[in-house]
Write a structure and sequence with these properties.
It is a multi-pass membrane protein. With 280 residues, the protein is α+β, with helices and mostly antiparallel strands. The protein folds into two domains: 123 residues, Helix Hairpins (Orthogonal Bundle); 149 residues, Heat Shock Protein 90 (2-Layer Sandwich), CATH 3.30.565.10. 58% of the residues lie in helices and 15% in strands. The strands form two sheets. A five-stranded mixed beta sheet has the order 2-4-5-7-6. A hairpin with a 5-residue loop joins strand 6 and strand 7. Helix 1 runs antiparallel to helix 2, helix 2 packs across helix 6 and helix 4 packs antiparallel against helix 6. The relative contact order is 0.10. Bound molecules: adenosine-5'-triphosphate and magnesium ion (MG). The site of magnesium ion has 5 residues, from helix 4.
């Protein structure tokens, strides 16, 4: 082979090498570009989801605050316009409507404040030594009239031997209020609810069982996320804000406990939460 041919082969090989390096460089750049596009898409999907959640929340909030405000306006308008012609009982009914509507609104506002405290890590509990059974019985008694109106029976099955221990009574009441109100709301007429307490190892365990429609496995953990609600509102006229279980989870976890959902046998759901008997 002549020196000329060898030089040509070397030049060709060098050219091929340069071309190869160029393509590798371009394909690396291209894959970077593709990754960036994927990342941008993901971020914008996330932003869209946050925006959608914000819009849903605002729509829900407006809806939830509008009805009690309308009731309050209607009742106060009537009293201002027709005060002389209203009987004492009628005025009392109107005042009660204003009172229950304003407490409903206050509950929503308090829930939103609790969520923002939980999210910013500023949520605090104040523990005192107390008897949890007493709180369970008092809270279940509070829901008896609401349950009676749907012919739902509430049975208490508390472990009398539970020792006193330290917990935040107001916050534990808040957890029970949500679990009991959910059980009454989402259980059909003639159903039943059971409230149970027992000691499992070092944990005091509380169960709220109902004979409602139950919750499918894929939704069990999702219900502890903000604003998640099932389409099971056929047993209730009230909608709620979908914040109750998130707050309940925050309260139980602030005590060092856990909360979860199980199936109730033969029908319905069982909400279980635990609180440590001793301080860590
Ligand atoms: N015992 C239950 N049986 C069936 N579904 C339930 C039960 N408890 C909760 N759920 C479902 O979980 C959703 C979330 O419950 P959560 O208590 O967080 O919100 P809410 O009751 O809708 O509103 P809020 O408690 O904020 O007033 C409910 O809307 C309902 O769809
Ligand atoms: Mg609720």
């Amino acid at each position: 082979m002549s020196a000329y041919a060898v030089t040509l082969i070397i030049i060709e090989s060098l050219l091929l090498l340069v071309l190869l390096i160029f393509f590798i460089y371009k394909s690396v750049k291209l894959s970077h570009l593709i990754n960036e596009v994927i990342l941008l898409r993901r971020n914008s999907e996330k932003q869209n989801q946050v925006q959608r959640e914000r819009d849903d929340f605002l729509a829900m909030l407006v809806h939830e605050l509008r009805s009690p405000l309308s009731v309050m306006k209607g009742a106060s308008d009537l009293m201002l316009k027709d005060a002389q012609n209203l009987s004492k009982e009628q005025i009392e009914t109107l005042l009660n409507q204003i009172k229950s509507s304003s407490s409903g609104m206050l509950n929503i506002v308090n829930d939103i404040l609790d969520i923002s405290k939980l999210e910013s890590g500023k949520f605090e509990i104040v523990k005192v030594k107390g008897n949890i059974n007493q709180i369970l019985i008092e809270e279940s008694a509070y829901y008896v009239p609401m349950a009676n109106s749907k012919q739902i029976k509430i049975n208490n099955n508390v472990d009398e031997k539970l020792p006193e221990f330290e917990f935040d009574p107001d916050r534990v009441r808040q957890v029970l209020k949500n679990l009991l109100s959910n059980a009454v709301k989402f259980t059909a007429e003639n159903g039943s609810i059971e409230l149970r307490s027992e000691l499992r190892g070092d944990m005091v365990t509380v169960c709220v069982c109902d004979t409602g429609d139950g919750i499918t496995d894929d939704m069990k953990h999702k219900l502890f996320h903000k604003f998640v609600q099932l389409n099971n509102h056929n047993h209730t006229k009230e909608r709620g804000t979908g914040l109750g279980l998130v707050i309940a989870k925050g309260i139980v976890e602030a005590h060092g406990g856990n909360i979860w959902i199980e199936d109730n046998n033969p029908k319905g759901s069982k909400f279980v939460f635990t609180l440590p008997l001793r301080q860590a």
